[in-house]
Amino acid sequence: MKRPRAPSPPSISAAAKPPVSPPLTPILKQKLQRTATPKWLPLKLTQTELTLPLTFPTGQTFRWKQTGPVQYSGSIGPHLVSLRQRPGDDTVSYCLHCSAASPNSAAELALLDFLNAEISLAELWSDFEVKDPRFGEVAKRLRGARVLRQDPLECLMQFLCSSNNNIARITKMVDFVSSLGLYLGEVEGFEFHQFPSLVRLSRVSEDELRKAGFGYRAKYITGTVSALQSKPGGGDEWLMSLRKLDLQDAIAALCTLPGVGPKVAACIALFSLDQHSAIPVDTHVWQIATRYLVPDLAGAKLTNKLCSRVAEAFVSKYGEYAGWAQTLLFIAELPAQKALLQSSQSTIQLVKSAEKKK
């Protein structure tokens, strides 16, 4: 199921550009390499392996913006890129708008790593369909829903903002945190920044975050930044080391950080730490599980113990990549995708009815 992973691009530490609000600290200037005329290049992924609307606006990341009909833009490390799919074209294209570091080749490697391109969806879906025929029916209509491989610090900060929150407010908070990083450019009216470093984040006070609308989450962010800075070797290295641990050890380590509970830890583990069997359990996943995997629990109140049982049920059904299966089933429950599924099922019924009449 895995293709050889491209070597990770070198990490680039960059000084931050201040947000539109009053500057928090002095900053340094850094030269950006901008493309005079942005050029669209084919990416080594077809729409079967990557469908943009089933990957980006699905709660995995809150930093990417829709900048066209089927186009999404965001920063990956020091690179500002856009991804695009056109009707009738099976390939996915990307465009490098600017970079604080390297040319196209490094940006493409970083992009493929971010998209978990070494994992074949076709092989995964085929395996899941054998284990669960219902999954096969959903996957036929929602192909190309990928699990991202984000930078762990970036993913951690986003999900600290997400707790007991709505999408609009989460996005506003994440935009504020992002604006503390190096300004990379603008695409279709949206400003983009490289995600700020731990050092930069450490200069932001709890009071400043509260004034920006973070509420009680402000203390979790400043507390987590402080905890990470105290780790031997530094917080970035400590977070990366969690990719080598067993799932339960990685979850336990994340839960030592302020504001990180089991669900947030599972999201971070799945979307940034290569923990492909992590199952973030919320009320939506609970409803999916009680309908199809553990119907005997229907009507019960969701507890931490039952969250563990749901996660075990997913892993028992789908195996080591259970998190990918859970992600697709979760996406299928989102209003926009549910309408698409219902429309497809109605079309199938009409075709079958017509065939019977013939």
Automatic annotation (TrEMBL):
Region (Disordered): 1-23
Stretches with biased composition (Pro residues): 1-10
GO cellular component term of the entry, any: nucleus
Family: Belongs to the type-1 OGG1 family.
Domain HhH-GPD: 161-334
One of the protein's GO biological processes: nucleotide-excision repair
Name of the protein: DNA-(apurinic or apyrimidinic site) lyase
Enzyme's top EC category: lyase
InterPro entries found in the cross-reference section: DNA_glycosylase, HhH-GPD_domain, HhH_base_excis_C, OGG_N, Oxidative_DNA_repair_enzyme
A Gene Ontology molecular function term of the record: class I DNA-(apurinic or apyrimidinic site) endonuclease activity
Protein's gene: LOC108859272
DNA damage keyword on record: yes
Signal peptide span: none
Catalytic reaction list: 2'-deoxyribonucleotide-(2'-deoxyribose 5'-phosphate)-2'-deoxyribonucleotide-DNA = a 3'-end 2'-deoxyribonucleotide-(2,3-dehydro-2,3-deoxyribose 5'-phosphate)-DNA + a 5'-end 5'-phospho-2'-deoxyribonucleoside-DNA + H(+)
Record's subcellular location: Nucleus
Keyword presence, DNA damage: yes
Its EC number(s): 4.2.99.18
Alphabetic keyword roster: DNA damage, DNA repair, Glycosidase, Hydrolase, Lyase, Multifunctional enzyme, Nucleus
Pfam families in alphabetical order: HhH-GPD (PF00730), OGG_N (PF07934)
